[in-house]
Amino acid sequence: MLCFLGQGGDGIVDIVTLHNVKKYFGEGFGQVKAIDGINLSFEKSKFTAIVGASGSGKTTLLNMIGGLYEPTEGTVIVDGTNLAELTEEELTVFRRRKIGFVFQDYNLIPEMTIRENILFPLALDDSRPNDAYFAEVVSALGLGRQLDKFPYMLSGGGQQCAAIARALINKNSIILADEPTGSFDAKTSQNVAGLLKMTAEAFHQTLILITHNLELSQLADRMVCLQDGRIVT
Ligand SMILES: Nc1ncnc2c1ncn2[C@@H]1O[C@H](COP(=O)(O)OP(=O)(O)OP(=O)(O)O)[C@@H](O)[C@H]1O
Ligand SMILES: [Mg+2]
Fold this sequence. Notes:
Structural class: alpha/beta
Number of strands: 10
Shape: globular
Helix content: 25-40%
Bound molecules: adenosine-5'-triphosphate, magnesium ion
Mean pLDDT: 89
Order of helices and strands: EEEHEEHEHHHEHEHEE
Largest sheet: 6 strands, mixed
Radius of gyration: 17 Å
């Protein structure tokens, strides 16, 4: 397995940079050093896979990039903004406009149709969908006939596609996906990861995807391996 750190060299634009980031949970003997001193950059429009054993800190790292967790130490810069300098309210808006999350368990709202779920991030911002873009996303994810259904009426793969569409609808520049294929069989996993890669390429998004699946990580431009909260090379 080839793992390496992005160096952000000449002409390369880094959209996410972590400087000596640590995240500790608890104190004293029970303290868990979930992330323990990470320096890492993510290049704009590239696809990075984050791999590592269970408990190695992958979700904690992704949640700090997404501004869901505040680091114990260190700085997280996203698209030129130091997340620590934003108020809670500013961070919520920043997250909604910059970052699309795809969670393992989809997090669709059961009472809303697939269409309403996909459009929800726009509704929160009081903005209206661009019809052509909405149609493009829906068609790329094969959701054309599912829009008026409720999430429970779709297969797991269908629901994950809806969650991906929701992550794409705001044209967020960064897509963070935490084991988006965790509950799928090998073929569906490849299809869903392939779709994420394809849509990220089409819409020039930076894709950061956590996976346990080494085959999926081969789809990425780069692989980052975590072990005990640190990067291993
Ligand atoms: N909110 C929390 N409070 C206390 N400890 C936590 C919390 N979140 C994570 N941890 C601990 O931090 C470590 C890293 O957890 P994390 O969820 O980031 O790992 P992971 O690599 O995503 O694992 P998995 O592959 O199982 O999802 C683990 O020891 C976990 O128990
Ligand atoms: Mg995790």
